[in-house]
Write a structure and sequence with these properties.
Blueprint (H helix, E strand, L loop, with lengths): L2 H13 L13 E6 L6 E9 L2 E10 L2 H14 L4 H15 L6 H4 L12 H24 L2
Antiparallel strand pairs: 1-2, 2-3
Helix pairs in contact: 1-2, 2-5, 3-5
Length: 144
Amino acid sequence: MDANLKRSIILEHYQNPKNKGLIKDDSYLKINMNNESCIDEVNLMLKIEDGIIKDIRFDGEACAMCISSSSIMVETLLGKTIEEAKNILSNFLKMIDEQDYNAEVLESATVYDDVYKQPNRKKCVLLPWWGIEKIIKGLEVENL
């Protein structure tokens, strides 16, 4: 993907993030994520019904990379099953760590495929994804 297109997608998701803003609803699973090395702090809410991600909401104070990553994550994971989400999460983490990954499942999240060139930005991009991963792992532990 062209670098200018990547920048415009990231900027669009930063300026007009998807599902930004929390709601009061106890049916959502919640987690707070923060990056101890910078200002990024994101609150995530995840609604799962019948094994499908029905909604993801987020809010917080964070840099452009973290906000855009949160928004792109929402767009990528909404409507997916938990198994599909786990596959997407795994491939996203592999991409960020410069390992072989399936770009098809990542959709527009591939805009971060070269974030490894700026190691200080990796945590910014990964923070919301780690939060959803923790929620899903928590569900698996509950179901043991």
